[in-house]
Design brief:
Layout (H helix, E strand, L loop, with lengths): L1 E14 L3 E3 L2 E3 L3 E3 L7 H13 L5 H4 L12 H14 L2 E11 L9 H12 L6 E6 L5 H4 L3 E12 L7
Parallel strand pairs: 5-6
Antiparallel strand pairs: 1-4, 1-7, 2-3, 5-7
Helix pairs in contact: 1-3, 3-4
Length: 164
Amino acid sequence: MTRIGLGYDIHRLEPGRELVLGGETIPFDKGLEGHSDADVLVHAACDALLGAAGMGDIGDHFPDTDPRYRGIYSIELLTSVYRRIKARGFALVNMDATVFAQAPRLSPHKARMALRMADCMSVDPGTINIKATTTEGLGVIGRGDGIAAMCVALLQTTTPAAGR
């Protein structure tokens, strides 16, 4: 059996923070504001995986009210999420994500982001595809106030009991 999940996240850009996307630090004069490192791409991936497995969302597993997750490197969350879904009998077939950002230009970083995410889940890097686009100057993202990401994940059951 296969199952699909969708994840979405958006965070405000703030001066004085590092910009982390897909586990990679991207050179930029602003970073994303949040309880963790605010990596919208990884957060969207976590939600896509959890949704496909029928396991809720990132806030259910790592609430922003819990001080243990203050400033956490979101790749650690993705590693934990993937372990949890594997324990429930699922494996990643593929993941496709889009990052919405007016700036910075993300094309030079996409391959490293995909590799970092694949490595933390111990999956083939070819199973993860990352795209980036602007919003042509429209809205919160177009004004440079924030960055968003959307991700879809396809899981396949590895045990007969998975997905029940």
